[in-house]
Amino acid sequence: MNSAKQYKCPACGAPIGFDAATGDVTCQNCGNAFDVSTLETLAHDTQSFQWGDHLHQEDAATMEGTRTYQCVSCGAQIEVDATTAATRCPYCDNNVVLTDQVSGGLRPNAVIPFRIAQKDLPAVVNKFYRGKHLLPKTFLSQRKLKEVQGIYVPFWLFDCRMDGNMVMQGTRIRHYREGDYDCTETSYYLLEREGEMSFSRVPVDASVKMPDDLMDSLEPFDYADLVDFNDAYLSGYLADRFDSSPDAELPRADRRMLNSAVDVLRSTAIGYSSVTIRANGMHISDADVRYVLLPVYLLNYEYQGKIYRLAVNGQTGKVVGQLPISKGRSLAWFLGSGAIGGLAAFLLGMLLQ
Amino acid sequence: MKRLCTILLALMLAVLLAVPAWATDEDPLPRVVDQLGWLEAYDVTELNGYILQRSAEEGTDIAILLLEALPDGMEYPSDYADFLYESGSYGYGDSRRCVMLTVDWEGGLLAVTSYEGDGALLTDAQTQAVSDLILDYINSDAPLAGAFTDFVDQVYDYAAGRRTAPEDEPVALPDWYPADVASFVDFHTAASTPRVVDDADLFTDGQEAAMAVKIAAMREAYNMDFVVYTSPSAYGMEHNMLAADFYQFNGYGVGDDFSGGVLLICMDPLDRGWFTATCGRYMDLYTSQANERLNARLQPWLVRGAEGESDAYGQGVLQYLDDTATVMSGKKVYNYTVPAVLAVIAFLLVGGITLGVERHKMKTVRQAADAEEYLVPGSFHLRRHRDFYLHRTVTRHRRESSTKSGGGGGGFSSSGGRSFGGGGGKF
Cβ of B367 under 8 Å from any chain A Cβ? Predict the structure, then answer.
């Protein structure tokens, strides 16, 4: 049997959870609010994730299958995924933090607490729908909200130095007239650039079951809100521990940093009509990583038999996802905007005569 | 290797012949250079001697250069001929009369160039005739030695005026052209004189009658004359001159300034086109914009007529006369074709782009491609940057001269010395 923790109100004994609106842990029963750090003094854990040390702690067996916990409140057996770090008891609906998933070498270095309260989600999502002209007329009335999850998603934040050189070909084009001829002179140059730059806290989600593009789209997070991890923040939300190692995810961060490094070096080729990259010798060094939990809401809507998933950045309120497209509105939009453009072009053509 | 030989030859000719050939009694210059092996050595010697002998008699130098390739930097055989002539290699007498035949085998080009002082010794028609002579020989199996002898003989005949090139033969002028232009006196023809002169027989009788009605209405409403003239031949004249001369020498026009205009449709097989010549007040009204619009609307009709569509010429001219009435009234003539094409393009572009933008907004999930916002400010350090010049290329395009259509409001003088404006094109 694995260990589980449940935060209870020191005043009335009722289950308590983190309140994103106030930033405190509040009791829904008696209304008392408690500072997170105060509650955590009950069980302070000083050890946290270190890159390199995690390998012996995350053998394949620990990340597959299910685990069983006993609810501290009702004593029921709770079966969860091997990567679940916080959940709700399906029997008494109390918040449960699975402390062994967030302690020792698995303890996150930091967390960004939820800033968007679940009760504010409808307003945030409705704002997202504004300006979506191709949204079916019946979507807002006929959609069914199947599920809302506030979940702390594990992320790696990579710090790296990008170093190396790049070889480019640049051209300068000059036009001039020579007698009856129009001449175009193209001069070719070989450009060598060598330099270095640093990137800080490039986020890559560390959860296999979270779609990478969905998590990328939620960026940016404001790292000013990063605080030392305290499992009291997880109370009232779902949470997963990482199930993909930094070594496995580093190539994703590397690819992004490489693209940016190439852009930076290419921007130093000034005064050329065109620049083409011939060889690229950029590589990362001095890589470091931190393990953090970032707040995300996942909303699943059902509309006309199809599930549409939205994700909300639990800190900034940024909403991403895919929405249904109305064919009728698409056609109307094409014809309407095209007609306006065509009419404007026709009038302009007449006016310029 | 071949190119190197050609360059060396060019340099040798340029340096050795810095002194004009005709200035020395002993001429070291070869008049025949055959890199292509078209002639036997004996023929080269014979031809060289023949040219030297005739050049002294005729006072005109001739050079025949049969080259495998042109030196670097030269695009046309005429460039090479100009280079040799300007370097003083060839030319006879004070005016340095000279004709050069240059063949660039690699480029597949042949050029005949003639020089006399700052001008050309041969006319375009003469130059074309001697070029055709060589080309005919090349395209046949006849011995080429004879071709170059004939070439030399024809050049000297043309230069001395003993022979006339086919295109140089005088062209018969139209019936209405005055025998003595210098003594022509302007006059006003009667208002009842036909204003539609369909010598090329492009219109039906009904169309001619409809045109006459429109022209009479214009004359009455705007006090300006107008004539439609179709001609089967250009009579060796430019279209603008033919139109203006027709208008002037037939006494068209209203008032002291002979206000009005003429639309010429020339059906000469070698020079098919149209031209609107304007005179007096109509010159001011017929702006370059009006010319552009009227031409744009008329040309498609003329093209359809040339493709055999019956009545197209007449319908086009009837529409043109409506446009002319609009111009004479001082109003604008609109061309709807260009705005309509623009509108269709804009419809598709704007509709497609805005729909694409809207669809893009419906899916906001995308993989991150870069990490620009995580670049530490001030951390970029450029350790080395070097730019090496490699090479350059130059492409040249001959500038297009307006040939297909166009014209404008540019003024010119007719053969009778009267000022005209207008414009036209070809179809």
Answer: yes
CB B421 within 8 A of CB B408: no
ipTM value, please give it: 0.80
Mutation for B interface: A334, A335, A351, most B CBs within 10 A: A334
Q: Could you tell me the pTM of the whole model?
A: 0.56
Collapse the DSSP code of A78 into the 3-class scheme (helix H, G, I; strand E, B; otherwise coil) and give the result: strand
| Collapsed DSSP state (helix, strand, coil) of residue A184 | strand
The distance in angstroms from the start CA to the end CA of chain B is: 48
Q: What is the pLDDT of residues B53-110, one digit of tens each?
A: 999 899 999 999 999 888 888 888 888 888 888 888 788 888 889 999 998 888 888 8
Residue found under tokens 């295109």 = B167
Nearest CA in chain A to B342: A345
Looking up tokens 């809100």 gives A225
What residues of B are in contact with residue A199 (Cβ under 8 Å)? 371, 374-376
Q: Residue B366: its chain A contacts at CB < 8 A?
A: 213, 216-217
Tell how strand B61-67 and strand B98-104 pair up: parallel
Q: How high is the mean pLDDT of chain A?
A: 85
Are the C-beta atoms of B261 and B422 separated by less than 8 Å? yes
- Comparing C-alpha atoms, which of B195, B314, B312 is closest to residue B262? B195
Measured between beta carbons, the chain A residues lying within 8 angstroms of B372 are 260, 263
Residue at token pair 């789209």: A217
Q: Which among A182, A185, A219 is the nearest to B368, CB-wise?
A: A219
